[in-house]
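Internal QA ticket QA-208
Title: Verify multi-chain structure generation after dependency bump
Assignee: T.L.

Test input:
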Amino acid sequence: MSRIDVRKTYKLYIGGQFPRSESGRSYVVNDAKGRLLANAAQASRKDARDAVVAARSAFGGWSTKTAYNRAQIVYRIAEVLEGRREQFEAELKAAEGISQAKARSYVDAAIDRLVWYAGWADKITQVVGNANPVAGPYFNLSTPEPSGVIAVVAPRGALLGLVSVVAPLIITGNTVVVIASEENPLTAITLGEVMATSDLPGGVVNVLTGSVAEIAPWLASHMDVNGIDLTGVEDAALATELEVAGADNLKRVRRPAPDTDWLVEPALDRMTRFLETKTVWHPIGV
Amino acid sequence: MYDDIVRSDSSLRRFLHGLPGVDQVGCEARAAGLGTRSIKTTAKAYAIDLAIRMVDLTTLEGADTHGKVKALASKAKRPDPADPSCPATAAVCVYPDMVATAKQTLGDSGVHVAAVATAFPSGRAAMDIKLADTRDAVEAGADEIDMVIDRGAFLSGRYLDVYDEIVQVKEACGDAHLKVIFETGELQTYDNVRRASWLAMMAGGHFIKTSTGKVQPAATLPVTLIMLEAVRDFRDQTGQMVGVKPAGGIKTTKDAIKYLVMVNEIAGPDWLDPDWFRFGASTLLNDLLMQRTKMTTGRYSGPDYFTLD
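Actual output:
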Protein backbone atom coordinates (compact mmCIF):
# COMPACT_ATOMS: atom_id res chain seq x y z
CA MET A 1 0.00 0.00 0.00
CA SER A 2 1.41 3.39 -0.97
CA ARG A 3 1.85 6.07 1.64
CA ILE A 4 -0.69 8.89 1.74
CA ASP A 5 0.73 12.36 1.10
CA VAL A 6 0.97 14.61 4.14
CA ARG A 7 0.07 17.99 2.70
CA LYS A 8 0.58 21.28 4.46
CA THR A 9 -2.38 23.50 5.30
CA TYR A 10 -1.35 27.08 4.59
CA LYS A 11 -2.88 29.32 7.22
CA LEU A 12 -2.25 32.88 8.36
CA TYR A 13 0.50 34.02 10.74
CA ILE A 14 -0.92 36.32 13.41
CA GLY A 15 0.46 37.04 16.87
CA GLY A 16 2.92 34.15 16.67
CA GLN A 17 0.11 31.68 15.92
CA PHE A 18 -1.04 30.10 12.68
CA PRO A 19 -4.83 30.57 12.67
CA ARG A 20 -7.20 29.88 9.79
CA SER A 21 -9.03 32.88 8.39
CA GLU A 22 -11.84 33.96 10.71
CA SER A 23 -14.05 33.95 7.61
CA GLY A 24 -13.33 30.28 6.92
CA ARG A 25 -12.44 31.12 3.31
CA SER A 26 -9.57 29.90 1.21
CA TYR A 27 -8.49 30.41 -2.37
CA VAL A 28 -6.69 28.35 -4.98
CA VAL A 29 -3.02 29.05 -5.60
CA ASN A 30 -1.60 27.79 -8.88
CA ASP A 31 1.99 27.25 -9.89
CA ALA A 32 3.63 29.05 -12.81
CA LYS A 33 2.08 26.60 -15.28
CA GLY A 34 -1.44 27.04 -13.92
CA ARG A 35 -1.63 23.73 -12.04
CA LEU A 36 -3.02 23.57 -8.51
CA LEU A 37 -0.31 24.09 -5.91
CA ALA A 38 -2.32 24.43 -2.73
CA ASN A 39 -5.18 26.32 -1.11
CA ALA A 40 -4.23 29.43 0.84
CA ALA A 41 -6.28 31.09 3.57
CA GLN A 42 -8.18 34.13 2.30
CA ALA A 43 -7.95 36.70 5.08
CA SER A 44 -10.90 38.97 5.88
CA ARG A 45 -10.98 42.46 7.38
CA LYS A 46 -11.39 40.88 10.82
CA ASP A 47 -8.16 38.93 10.39
CA ALA A 48 -6.54 42.26 9.49
CA ARG A 49 -8.01 43.80 12.63
CA ASP A 50 -6.72 40.94 14.79
CA ALA A 51 -3.30 41.28 13.17
CA VAL A 52 -3.19 44.99 14.02
CA VAL A 53 -4.11 44.22 17.63
CA ALA A 54 -1.32 41.63 17.76
CA ALA A 55 1.18 44.03 16.18
CA ARG A 56 0.21 46.81 18.58
CA SER A 57 0.61 44.64 21.65
CA ALA A 58 4.00 43.42 20.40
CA PHE A 59 5.22 46.96 19.69
CA GLY A 60 6.05 47.95 23.28
CA GLY A 61 8.32 44.99 23.89
CA TRP A 62 9.93 44.95 20.45
CA SER A 63 10.66 48.66 20.14
CA THR A 64 12.27 48.79 23.59
CA LYS A 65 14.61 45.88 22.99
CA THR A 66 18.14 47.06 22.42
CA ALA A 67 19.16 47.51 18.80
CA TYR A 68 21.84 44.90 19.44
CA ASN A 69 19.22 42.38 20.51
CA ARG A 70 16.98 43.10 17.51
CA ALA A 71 20.00 42.54 15.27
CA GLN A 72 20.64 39.17 16.90
CA ILE A 73 17.06 38.10 16.32
CA VAL A 74 16.97 39.18 12.67
CA TYR A 75 20.32 37.46 12.15
CA ARG A 76 18.77 34.38 13.72
CA ILE A 77 15.97 34.48 11.10
CA ALA A 78 18.71 34.39 8.46
CA GLU A 79 20.35 31.41 10.20
CA VAL A 80 17.12 29.41 10.36
CA LEU A 81 16.33 30.31 6.76
CA GLU A 82 19.76 29.04 5.74
CA GLY A 83 19.01 25.73 7.45
CA ARG A 84 15.79 25.32 5.49
CA ARG A 85 17.08 26.53 2.13
CA GLU A 86 16.15 23.36 0.23
CA GLN A 87 12.53 23.76 1.18
CA PHE A 88 12.52 27.39 0.06
CA GLU A 89 14.32 26.60 -3.20
CA ALA A 90 11.76 23.89 -3.97
CA GLU A 91 8.85 26.21 -3.15
CA LEU A 92 10.30 29.01 -5.31
CA LYS A 93 10.82 26.66 -8.23
CA ALA A 94 7.23 25.45 -8.03
CA ALA A 95 5.65 28.83 -7.44
CA GLU A 96 7.55 30.92 -9.94
CA GLY A 97 8.56 28.27 -12.47
CA ILE A 98 12.24 29.19 -12.29
CA SER A 99 15.38 27.07 -12.54
CA GLN A 100 17.17 25.53 -9.58
CA ALA A 101 20.09 27.96 -10.03
CA LYS A 102 17.82 30.99 -10.06
CA ALA A 103 15.86 29.75 -7.03
CA ARG A 104 19.14 29.30 -5.17
CA SER A 105 20.23 32.83 -6.05
CA TYR A 106 16.96 34.26 -4.70
CA VAL A 107 17.27 32.34 -1.43
CA ASP A 108 20.91 33.46 -1.15
CA ALA A 109 19.87 37.05 -1.72
CA ALA A 110 17.06 36.82 0.84
CA ILE A 111 19.40 35.45 3.50
CA ASP A 112 22.03 38.06 2.68
CA ARG A 113 19.41 40.80 2.82
CA LEU A 114 18.42 39.75 6.35
CA VAL A 115 22.04 39.75 7.46
CA TRP A 116 22.60 43.14 5.80
CA TYR A 117 19.65 44.72 7.61
CA ALA A 118 20.57 42.97 10.89
CA GLY A 119 23.85 44.84 10.73
CA TRP A 120 22.05 48.16 10.44
CA ALA A 121 20.14 47.84 13.74
CA ASP A 122 22.79 49.48 15.90
CA LYS A 123 24.14 51.79 13.18
CA ILE A 124 21.13 53.56 11.72
CA THR A 125 20.89 55.89 14.73
CA GLN A 126 24.43 57.15 14.16
CA VAL A 127 23.78 57.70 10.46
CA VAL A 128 20.44 59.52 10.60
CA GLY A 129 20.61 60.87 14.16
CA ASN A 130 22.55 64.00 14.93
CA ALA A 131 23.97 66.37 17.53
CA ASN A 132 22.62 69.69 16.29
CA PRO A 133 24.55 72.92 16.81
CA VAL A 134 22.32 75.43 18.57
CA ALA A 135 22.88 79.02 19.74
CA GLY A 136 22.43 78.41 23.44
CA PRO A 137 23.79 76.43 26.37
CA TYR A 138 22.13 73.20 25.28
CA PHE A 139 22.91 69.84 23.87
CA ASN A 140 20.46 69.33 21.02
CA LEU A 141 20.17 65.72 19.95
CA SER A 142 18.04 64.15 17.23
CA THR A 143 17.45 60.41 17.31
CA PRO A 144 15.27 58.20 15.12
CA GLU A 145 12.42 56.25 16.74
CA PRO A 146 10.12 53.64 15.19
CA SER A 147 6.71 54.85 13.99
CA GLY A 148 4.66 51.96 15.38
CA VAL A 149 2.49 49.48 13.51
CA ILE A 150 3.18 49.48 9.77
CA ALA A 151 0.92 47.83 7.20
CA VAL A 152 2.75 46.52 4.13
CA VAL A 153 1.57 45.32 0.75
CA ALA A 154 4.36 42.98 -0.31
CA PRO A 155 5.55 43.02 -3.91
CA ARG A 156 5.28 40.18 -6.42
CA GLY A 157 7.64 37.27 -5.96
CA ALA A 158 7.56 34.59 -3.36
CA LEU A 159 10.46 35.39 -1.04
CA LEU A 160 13.04 38.06 -1.81
CA GLY A 161 10.58 40.95 -2.22
CA LEU A 162 8.82 40.04 1.01
CA VAL A 163 12.03 39.82 3.02
CA SER A 164 13.24 43.09 1.50
CA VAL A 165 10.18 45.03 2.65
CA VAL A 166 9.73 43.44 6.09
CA ALA A 167 13.33 43.32 7.36
CA PRO A 168 13.99 47.10 7.21
CA LEU A 169 10.81 47.79 9.18
CA ILE A 170 11.35 45.37 12.04
CA ILE A 171 15.05 46.06 12.41
CA THR A 172 14.29 49.65 13.44
CA GLY A 173 11.69 48.54 15.99
CA ASN A 174 8.41 48.79 14.09
CA THR A 175 5.90 45.93 14.07
CA VAL A 176 4.37 44.82 10.81
CA VAL A 177 1.17 43.53 9.26
CA VAL A 178 2.08 42.35 5.77
CA ILE A 179 -0.25 41.25 3.00
CA ALA A 180 1.72 38.65 1.05
CA SER A 181 1.82 38.62 -2.73
CA GLU A 182 -1.62 37.55 -3.91
CA GLU A 183 -0.21 35.19 -6.58
CA ASN A 184 2.58 33.70 -4.47
CA PRO A 185 1.38 33.61 -0.86
CA LEU A 186 2.60 30.15 0.16
CA THR A 187 6.27 30.90 0.74
CA ALA A 188 5.25 33.85 2.92
CA ILE A 189 3.60 31.45 5.34
CA THR A 190 6.63 29.15 5.27
CA LEU A 191 8.70 32.23 6.08
CA GLY A 192 6.30 32.78 8.98
CA GLU A 193 7.31 29.35 10.27
CA VAL A 194 10.93 30.45 10.12
CA MET A 195 10.15 33.61 12.06
CA ALA A 196 8.12 31.70 14.63
CA THR A 197 11.18 29.60 15.42
CA SER A 198 13.72 32.43 15.41
CA ASP A 199 13.17 34.14 18.79
CA LEU A 200 11.12 36.79 17.01
CA PRO A 201 8.37 37.65 19.52
CA GLY A 202 4.85 36.79 18.33
CA GLY A 203 3.07 39.74 16.72
CA VAL A 204 6.18 41.56 15.47
CA VAL A 205 5.49 40.23 11.99
CA ASN A 206 1.98 39.18 11.00
CA VAL A 207 1.36 37.67 7.58
CA LEU A 208 -2.02 37.81 5.84
CA THR A 209 -2.76 36.05 2.56
CA GLY A 210 -5.67 36.96 0.33
CA SER A 211 -7.00 39.78 -1.80
CA VAL A 212 -5.07 43.06 -1.57
CA ALA A 213 -8.06 45.01 -2.87
CA GLU A 214 -10.19 43.56 -0.08
CA ILE A 215 -7.87 43.85 2.92
CA ALA A 216 -5.64 46.85 2.22
CA PRO A 217 -8.37 49.55 2.47
CA TRP A 218 -9.19 48.39 6.02
CA LEU A 219 -5.55 48.68 7.02
CA ALA A 220 -5.17 52.04 5.26
CA SER A 221 -8.13 53.53 7.15
CA HIS A 222 -7.28 51.82 10.47
CA MET A 223 -6.68 54.51 13.08
CA ASP A 224 -4.25 52.31 15.01
CA VAL A 225 -1.90 51.77 12.06
CA ASN A 226 0.88 54.35 11.92
CA GLY A 227 2.19 53.85 8.43
CA ILE A 228 1.48 52.01 5.21
CA ASP A 229 3.98 50.73 2.68
CA LEU A 230 2.28 50.36 -0.71
CA THR A 231 5.30 48.83 -2.47
CA GLY A 232 3.36 45.92 -3.98
CA VAL A 233 0.21 47.78 -5.06
CA GLU A 234 -0.01 47.47 -8.84
CA ASP A 235 -3.38 49.11 -9.43
CA ALA A 236 -2.83 52.90 -9.54
CA ALA A 237 -6.45 53.71 -8.63
CA LEU A 238 -6.26 51.46 -5.57
CA ALA A 239 -2.98 53.06 -4.54
CA THR A 240 -4.57 56.51 -4.65
CA GLU A 241 -7.56 55.29 -2.66
CA LEU A 242 -5.27 53.80 -0.01
CA GLU A 243 -3.23 56.98 0.24
CA VAL A 244 -6.36 59.06 0.72
CA ALA A 245 -7.67 56.68 3.37
CA GLY A 246 -4.32 56.83 5.15
CA ALA A 247 -4.45 60.62 5.41
CA ASP A 248 -7.10 60.51 8.15
CA ASN A 249 -4.63 59.73 10.91
CA LEU A 250 -1.62 61.17 9.08
CA LYS A 251 -0.09 57.80 8.28
CA ARG A 252 3.35 57.74 6.83
CA VAL A 253 2.94 56.40 3.30
CA ARG A 254 5.44 54.78 1.01
CA ARG A 255 4.33 54.94 -2.62
CA PRO A 256 4.06 51.85 -4.85
CA ALA A 257 7.20 50.49 -6.49
CA PRO A 258 6.12 47.16 -7.96
CA ASP A 259 8.94 46.98 -10.53
CA THR A 260 11.85 47.26 -8.10
CA ASP A 261 14.80 44.97 -8.85
CA TRP A 262 15.19 43.25 -5.50
CA LEU A 263 18.58 41.76 -6.29
CA VAL A 264 20.19 45.21 -6.12
CA GLU A 265 21.55 46.27 -2.73
CA PRO A 266 18.95 48.64 -1.21
CA ALA A 267 19.38 52.23 -0.03
CA LEU A 268 18.51 53.26 3.54
CA ASP A 269 15.13 54.76 2.69
CA ARG A 270 13.16 51.60 3.48
CA MET A 271 14.29 52.05 7.07
CA THR A 272 14.14 55.83 7.31
CA ARG A 273 10.66 56.21 5.77
CA PHE A 274 9.09 54.71 8.89
CA LEU A 275 11.19 56.41 11.54
CA GLU A 276 10.24 59.52 13.49
CA THR A 277 12.93 61.96 14.50
CA LYS A 278 12.84 62.85 18.17
CA THR A 279 14.82 65.93 19.16
CA VAL A 280 15.68 66.69 22.77
CA TRP A 281 17.18 69.82 24.28
CA HIS A 282 19.31 69.22 27.31
CA PRO A 283 20.92 72.01 29.34
CA ILE A 284 24.69 71.97 29.48
CA GLY A 285 25.82 71.91 33.11
CA VAL A 286 27.67 75.07 34.13
CA MET B 1 -43.39 35.36 52.54
CA TYR B 2 -40.09 33.71 53.43
CA ASP B 3 -40.52 34.33 57.17
CA ASP B 4 -40.87 30.62 57.87
CA ILE B 5 -37.69 29.81 56.03
CA VAL B 6 -35.48 32.40 57.70
CA ARG B 7 -36.87 31.65 61.16
CA SER B 8 -33.85 29.51 62.07
CA ASP B 9 -30.51 28.42 60.71
CA SER B 10 -31.77 24.89 60.15
CA SER B 11 -34.90 25.91 58.24
CA LEU B 12 -32.84 28.21 56.04
CA ARG B 13 -30.30 25.50 55.39
CA ARG B 14 -33.07 23.03 54.57
CA PHE B 15 -34.47 25.47 52.01
CA LEU B 16 -31.15 26.37 50.37
CA HIS B 17 -29.96 22.79 50.19
CA GLY B 18 -33.39 21.80 48.85
CA LEU B 19 -32.91 24.00 45.78
CA PRO B 20 -32.42 21.89 42.67
CA GLY B 21 -28.76 21.15 41.97
CA VAL B 22 -27.06 22.75 38.99
CA ASP B 23 -26.16 20.44 36.11
CA GLN B 24 -22.60 21.66 35.60
CA VAL B 25 -22.08 20.21 32.13
CA GLY B 26 -25.49 21.33 30.91
CA CYS B 27 -25.07 24.82 32.34
CA GLU B 28 -21.67 25.33 30.75
CA ALA B 29 -22.86 23.95 27.41
CA ARG B 30 -25.90 26.23 27.46
CA ALA B 31 -23.76 29.28 28.27
CA ALA B 32 -21.30 28.38 25.50
CA GLY B 33 -24.16 27.80 23.07
CA LEU B 34 -25.70 31.18 23.75
CA GLY B 35 -22.27 32.71 23.20
CA THR B 36 -22.25 31.65 19.56
CA ARG B 37 -25.19 33.83 18.46
CA SER B 38 -24.27 36.24 15.70
CA ILE B 39 -25.33 39.82 16.46
CA LYS B 40 -24.66 42.17 13.55
CA THR B 41 -25.44 45.60 12.04
CA THR B 42 -28.41 47.40 13.63
CA ALA B 43 -28.81 44.79 16.38
CA LYS B 44 -25.14 45.21 17.21
CA ALA B 45 -25.42 49.00 17.28
CA TYR B 46 -28.38 48.66 19.67
CA ALA B 47 -26.49 46.17 21.82
CA ILE B 48 -23.43 48.44 22.05
CA ASP B 49 -25.46 51.46 23.15
CA LEU B 50 -27.38 49.34 25.64
CA ALA B 51 -24.14 47.91 27.02
CA ILE B 52 -22.68 51.42 27.44
CA ARG B 53 -25.81 52.45 29.36
CA MET B 54 -25.34 49.39 31.58
CA VAL B 55 -21.72 50.00 32.52
CA ASP B 56 -20.82 50.71 36.14
CA LEU B 57 -17.55 52.44 35.34
CA THR B 58 -15.29 51.22 38.08
CA THR B 59 -12.06 52.23 39.74
CA LEU B 60 -11.19 50.34 42.90
CA GLU B 61 -7.47 50.71 43.32
CA GLY B 62 -5.40 51.57 46.33
CA ALA B 63 -3.79 54.21 44.13
CA ASP B 64 -7.06 56.03 43.31
CA THR B 65 -6.84 59.81 43.57
CA HIS B 66 -9.51 62.51 43.54
CA GLY B 67 -8.20 63.54 40.13
CA LYS B 68 -8.64 60.08 38.73
CA VAL B 69 -12.18 59.79 40.10
CA LYS B 70 -13.07 63.18 38.60
CA ALA B 71 -11.74 62.10 35.23
CA LEU B 72 -13.65 58.84 35.46
CA ALA B 73 -16.87 60.62 36.40
CA SER B 74 -16.49 63.00 33.46
CA LYS B 75 -16.00 60.03 31.19
CA ALA B 76 -19.13 58.37 32.60
CA LYS B 77 -21.18 61.46 31.72
CA ARG B 78 -19.84 61.72 28.17
CA PRO B 79 -18.01 58.54 27.24
CA ASP B 80 -17.26 59.76 23.72
CA PRO B 81 -16.75 63.53 23.67
CA ALA B 82 -16.58 63.46 19.88
CA ASP B 83 -20.09 62.04 19.54
CA PRO B 84 -23.01 63.60 21.46
CA SER B 85 -25.29 60.71 20.50
CA CYS B 86 -23.25 58.34 22.67
CA PRO B 87 -25.21 57.56 25.86
CA ALA B 88 -23.89 58.00 29.40
CA THR B 89 -22.99 55.01 31.57
CA ALA B 90 -25.27 53.84 34.39
CA ALA B 91 -22.97 54.66 37.27
CA VAL B 92 -19.46 55.09 38.51
CA CYS B 93 -18.28 52.66 41.17
CA VAL B 94 -15.71 53.86 43.71
CA TYR B 95 -14.53 53.42 47.30
CA PRO B 96 -16.62 55.26 49.95
CA ASP B 97 -14.09 58.06 50.48
CA MET B 98 -14.31 58.99 46.80
CA VAL B 99 -18.12 59.21 46.72
CA ALA B 100 -18.28 62.95 47.41
CA THR B 101 -15.76 63.68 44.65
CA ALA B 102 -17.65 61.56 42.14
CA LYS B 103 -20.99 63.08 43.18
CA GLN B 104 -19.63 66.60 42.75
CA THR B 105 -18.46 65.91 39.20
CA LEU B 106 -21.59 64.03 38.18
CA GLY B 107 -24.04 66.61 39.59
CA ASP B 108 -27.55 66.05 38.26
CA SER B 109 -26.39 64.22 35.14
CA GLY B 110 -28.43 61.16 36.09
CA VAL B 111 -25.33 58.99 36.36
CA HIS B 112 -25.43 57.22 39.72
CA VAL B 113 -22.63 56.85 42.22
CA ALA B 114 -22.10 53.35 43.51
CA ALA B 115 -19.82 52.74 46.49
CA VAL B 116 -18.34 49.46 47.63
CA ALA B 117 -18.75 49.04 51.36
CA THR B 118 -18.62 46.46 54.17
CA ALA B 119 -14.85 46.06 54.21
CA PHE B 120 -14.58 45.46 50.47
CA PRO B 121 -13.14 43.27 49.00
CA SER B 122 -12.58 40.67 51.74
CA GLY B 123 -15.56 41.46 53.95
CA ARG B 124 -13.43 40.59 56.97
CA ALA B 125 -14.41 43.17 59.61
CA ALA B 126 -16.69 43.45 62.60
CA MET B 127 -20.37 44.03 61.85
CA ASP B 128 -20.52 47.54 63.29
CA ILE B 129 -17.56 48.57 61.16
CA LYS B 130 -19.28 47.24 58.07
CA LEU B 131 -22.43 49.16 58.94
CA ALA B 132 -20.47 52.33 59.64
CA ASP B 133 -18.71 51.90 56.30
CA THR B 134 -22.11 51.65 54.61
CA ARG B 135 -23.65 54.66 56.41
CA ASP B 136 -20.55 56.68 55.63
CA ALA B 137 -20.93 56.03 51.91
CA VAL B 138 -24.66 56.76 51.94
CA GLU B 139 -24.14 60.03 53.82
CA ALA B 140 -21.54 61.08 51.28
CA GLY B 141 -24.24 60.72 48.65
CA ALA B 142 -23.92 57.21 47.23
CA ASP B 143 -27.00 56.11 45.29
CA GLU B 144 -26.01 52.46 45.32
CA ILE B 145 -24.07 50.32 47.76
CA ASP B 146 -22.12 47.25 46.64
CA MET B 147 -21.64 45.01 49.68
CA VAL B 148 -19.65 41.81 49.94
CA ILE B 149 -21.03 38.80 51.79
CA ASP B 150 -19.01 36.99 54.43
CA ARG B 151 -17.82 34.07 52.31
CA GLY B 152 -16.29 32.38 55.35
CA ALA B 153 -19.68 32.24 57.05
CA PHE B 154 -21.40 31.15 53.85
CA LEU B 155 -18.96 28.33 53.12
CA SER B 156 -19.12 27.03 56.69
CA GLY B 157 -22.89 26.86 56.42
CA ARG B 158 -23.80 29.76 58.72
CA TYR B 159 -26.39 30.99 56.26
CA LEU B 160 -28.48 32.88 58.79
CA ASP B 161 -25.47 35.03 59.72
CA VAL B 162 -25.08 35.97 56.08
CA TYR B 163 -28.80 36.64 55.81
CA ASP B 164 -28.83 38.88 58.88
CA GLU B 165 -25.81 40.74 57.64
CA ILE B 166 -27.50 41.55 54.33
CA VAL B 167 -30.69 42.63 56.13
CA GLN B 168 -28.75 44.95 58.44
CA VAL B 169 -26.69 46.47 55.66
CA LYS B 170 -29.86 47.03 53.68
CA GLU B 171 -31.32 48.91 56.66
CA ALA B 172 -28.17 51.03 56.84
CA CYS B 173 -28.53 51.82 53.14
CA GLY B 174 -31.77 53.72 53.60
CA ASP B 175 -32.90 54.80 50.15
CA ALA B 176 -29.74 53.67 48.42
CA HIS B 177 -29.98 50.52 46.32
CA LEU B 178 -28.13 47.48 47.60
CA LYS B 179 -26.04 45.18 45.41
CA VAL B 180 -24.86 41.98 47.04
CA ILE B 181 -21.48 40.65 45.88
CA PHE B 182 -20.97 36.89 46.22
CA GLU B 183 -17.39 36.60 44.97
CA THR B 184 -18.37 33.52 42.99
CA GLY B 185 -14.71 32.70 42.42
CA GLU B 186 -14.55 31.74 46.10
CA LEU B 187 -17.87 29.89 46.32
CA GLN B 188 -16.42 26.70 44.77
CA THR B 189 -19.59 25.22 43.23
CA TYR B 190 -22.45 26.31 41.01
CA ASP B 191 -24.86 24.98 43.63
CA ASN B 192 -23.41 27.52 46.06
CA VAL B 193 -23.96 30.32 43.54
CA ARG B 194 -27.63 29.35 43.28
CA ARG B 195 -27.95 29.20 47.09
CA ALA B 196 -26.24 32.56 47.55
CA SER B 197 -28.53 34.10 44.93
CA TRP B 198 -31.66 32.97 46.75
CA LEU B 199 -30.26 33.98 50.10
CA ALA B 200 -29.50 37.50 48.92
CA MET B 201 -32.84 37.90 47.18
CA MET B 202 -34.77 36.74 50.23
CA ALA B 203 -32.79 39.19 52.37
CA GLY B 204 -33.91 42.02 50.12
CA GLY B 205 -30.93 42.77 47.87
CA HIS B 206 -31.88 44.88 44.85
CA PHE B 207 -29.07 43.44 42.75
CA ILE B 208 -26.95 40.32 42.93
CA LYS B 209 -23.40 40.74 41.72
CA THR B 210 -20.85 38.07 40.82
CA SER B 211 -17.49 39.35 41.96
CA THR B 212 -15.33 42.07 43.40
CA GLY B 213 -12.96 41.94 40.45
CA LYS B 214 -10.12 41.20 42.89
CA VAL B 215 -10.36 37.41 42.71
CA GLN B 216 -9.91 35.14 39.70
CA PRO B 217 -12.06 33.77 38.18
CA ALA B 218 -14.34 36.80 38.25
CA ALA B 219 -17.57 36.92 36.24
CA THR B 220 -18.12 33.98 33.92
CA LEU B 221 -21.01 33.18 31.61
CA PRO B 222 -22.17 30.00 33.44
CA VAL B 223 -22.21 31.74 36.83
CA THR B 224 -24.19 34.65 35.40
CA LEU B 225 -26.56 32.17 33.78
CA ILE B 226 -27.33 30.60 37.16
CA MET B 227 -27.93 34.00 38.70
CA LEU B 228 -30.22 35.03 35.83
CA GLU B 229 -32.23 31.82 36.34
CA ALA B 230 -32.49 32.66 40.02
CA VAL B 231 -33.87 36.17 39.47
CA ARG B 232 -36.30 34.83 36.88
CA ASP B 233 -37.60 32.15 39.26
CA PHE B 234 -37.72 34.62 42.12
CA ARG B 235 -39.95 36.94 40.13
CA ASP B 236 -42.21 34.03 39.19
CA GLN B 237 -42.66 33.22 42.86
CA THR B 238 -42.84 36.64 44.45
CA GLY B 239 -43.48 39.15 41.69
CA GLN B 240 -40.36 41.06 42.75
CA MET B 241 -37.65 41.83 40.23
CA VAL B 242 -33.97 41.66 41.23
CA GLY B 243 -31.11 42.90 39.05
CA VAL B 244 -27.92 41.08 38.08
CA LYS B 245 -24.43 42.52 37.76
CA PRO B 246 -21.51 40.49 36.41
CA ALA B 247 -18.25 42.24 37.29
CA GLY B 248 -14.61 41.66 36.46
CA GLY B 249 -13.01 40.10 33.42
CA ILE B 250 -15.52 41.41 30.85
CA LYS B 251 -13.20 43.29 28.54
CA THR B 252 -14.52 43.16 25.00
CA THR B 253 -17.67 44.12 23.17
CA LYS B 254 -17.95 40.53 22.02
CA ASP B 255 -18.08 39.35 25.66
CA ALA B 256 -20.62 42.01 26.59
CA ILE B 257 -22.92 41.01 23.75
CA LYS B 258 -22.74 37.37 24.84
CA TYR B 259 -23.99 38.45 28.25
CA LEU B 260 -26.82 40.49 26.72
CA VAL B 261 -27.93 37.52 24.63
CA MET B 262 -27.99 35.44 27.79
CA VAL B 263 -30.02 38.05 29.69
CA ASN B 264 -32.59 38.03 26.92
CA GLU B 265 -32.77 34.25 26.65
CA ILE B 266 -32.63 33.27 30.32
CA ALA B 267 -34.21 36.09 32.35
CA GLY B 268 -36.16 37.74 29.55
CA PRO B 269 -36.26 41.11 27.79
CA ASP B 270 -37.52 42.85 30.96
CA TRP B 271 -33.98 42.64 32.29
CA LEU B 272 -32.46 44.33 29.21
CA ASP B 273 -32.42 47.63 31.04
CA PRO B 274 -29.77 49.46 33.08
CA ASP B 275 -32.12 49.30 36.06
CA TRP B 276 -31.94 45.50 36.03
CA PHE B 277 -28.62 44.53 34.47
CA ARG B 278 -25.21 46.11 34.85
CA PHE B 279 -21.64 45.44 33.84
CA GLY B 280 -18.98 46.13 36.46
CA ALA B 281 -16.08 47.13 34.22
CA SER B 282 -13.43 49.65 33.37
CA THR B 283 -11.60 48.56 30.21
CA LEU B 284 -14.83 47.30 28.62
CA LEU B 285 -16.05 50.85 28.00
CA ASN B 286 -13.15 51.73 25.72
CA ASP B 287 -13.71 48.63 23.62
CA LEU B 288 -17.42 49.45 23.35
CA LEU B 289 -16.52 52.98 22.25
CA MET B 290 -14.03 51.68 19.69
CA GLN B 291 -16.63 49.34 18.22
CA ARG B 292 -19.20 52.12 18.24
CA THR B 293 -16.80 54.40 16.38
CA LYS B 294 -16.12 51.61 13.90
CA MET B 295 -19.86 51.38 13.20
CA THR B 296 -20.42 55.12 12.82
CA THR B 297 -17.28 55.95 10.81
CA GLY B 298 -16.78 52.71 8.88
CA ARG B 299 -13.14 52.38 9.85
CA TYR B 300 -11.33 50.73 12.71
CA SER B 301 -10.41 52.94 15.60
CA GLY B 302 -7.49 52.61 18.00
CA PRO B 303 -6.81 53.00 21.71
CA ASP B 304 -4.95 56.26 21.05
CA TYR B 305 -8.28 58.00 20.57
CA PHE B 306 -9.79 57.13 23.94
CA THR B 307 -8.79 58.02 27.45
CA LEU B 308 -6.58 55.77 29.50
CA ASP B 309 -8.23 54.76 32.72
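Spot checks passed. Chain B has one domain: 5-301.
Status: verified.
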